[in-house]
Amino acid sequence: MGAVVDTTVFIDLERSTSREGHARSAELIGQRLTECLGPDEQAAIAAITASELLHGVHRASAKHRATREAFVESILAVVPVLDFDLLAARAHARLWADLANTGSDVGPHDRIVAATAISLGWQVATANVRHFGRIAGLDVVEVR
């Protein structure tokens, strides 16, 4: 099994590493995921997560843009990015309909992350367990 890592994990990591500098970001990412998922667990991000991280770079102030970009690029260099393919699209459509029927939507990007994980039989690793926990049948692991 593997884990699709949600953006919240990287936001928390960026905040914690900003105090000590981002020089060890890639190493810290690996350590944090190994601690929470185990040493043999695969980890990857959904393509939408890559977009969210890059969006954060473009939204950063001029003062913080270079450090944020270095942090994001260190993530993209070590964590594989999963495509949103037809299997994920089918899982997404079913998930979207189920959430709409129950009135408990989680937002379009998180639906894509969840659908990517479901299509692979993987779990979602997130700092927002309460949010992803609303998705029936999704295995969620907290990463802090």
List the helices and strands and how they pair.
Layout: E1 2-5, H1 7-18, H2 25-37, E2 42-46, H3 47-59, H4 62-78, E3 81-82, H5 86-102, H6 108-120, E4 123-126, H7 129-132, E5 140-142
Parallel strand pairs: 1-2, 1-4, 2-3, 4-5
Helix pairs in contact: 3-4, 5-6
Q: What features would you describe in this structure?
A:
The chain has 144 residues and is α/β, with parallel strands linked by helices. It folds into two domains: 7-82, no CATH class; 86-142, 5'-nuclease (Rossmann fold, 3-Layer(aba) Sandwich). Helices cover 62% and strands 12% of the residues. Strands 3-2-1-4-5 form a five-stranded parallel β-sheet, with helices on both faces. The longest helix is centred in the middle third of the chain and has 17 residues, at 62-78. The chain starts with a strand and ends with a strand. The relative contact order is 0.21.
